[in-house]
């Protein structure tokens, strides 16, 4: 389904009892996790109920339907998403699976970094984007337990730098605006992933919108990889601080390629 979130969604469903699987799973997501939970559920013959904001792109809604997720649309506020998911939960008995603030999801996301370290055990850094915090929490746990003097660094748009501010303050911060091309990174940290991030992530590097666009173009043009803007954020961070990372062995988590081809910035 084009993103790392398939790992977390699959792990979360596999850890449910047979009784819970029969009743299905529910989540709220505007994009990648909606697709991930739908496809993981379809693969495991489990019903999936997906709450999507009415502002979500038709491309993403179409993908969810292809994976047989049952979509319920609602207004795009977090309160509306949560209320709609709660209603479905009560009506169906489905288990709620949070896109990033769920321990089974976090551990599933961490498997990407495990495979990276298996192939390249002597990395100095693993850098990944920060959105809702599931990927970086899983990556940070992997680096801590399987890395060899490796450090985990997050990369985040300046326009949505709530995780960077959260590391500074020691509490979960929010964003008043979310004006970034990296639409997958607009969500905020949660009470389960933030303590993991606070303890195990060395730092977060912030990048501008222009730096993200330049890195995105470089990946498409030179590496011939279709990635979404959120995936380019870690490379943008490395380029921004290239003198610091010179001669270091660096792994980058490329988080997804579900890009709307009609809205490319180049």
TrEMBL record:
Tagged with keyword Zinc: no
Tryptophan synthase beta chain-like PALP domain sequence ranges: 2-256
Domain of life: Bacteria
InterPro entries: TrpB-like_PALP, TrpB-like_PALP_sf
Keyword Lyase: no
Keyword annotations of the record: Pyridoxal phosphate
Pfam assignment, any one: PALP
Cofactors that this protein relies on: pyridoxal 5'-phosphate
Protein's UniProt name: Serine/threonine dehydratase
Organism: Christiangramia forsetii
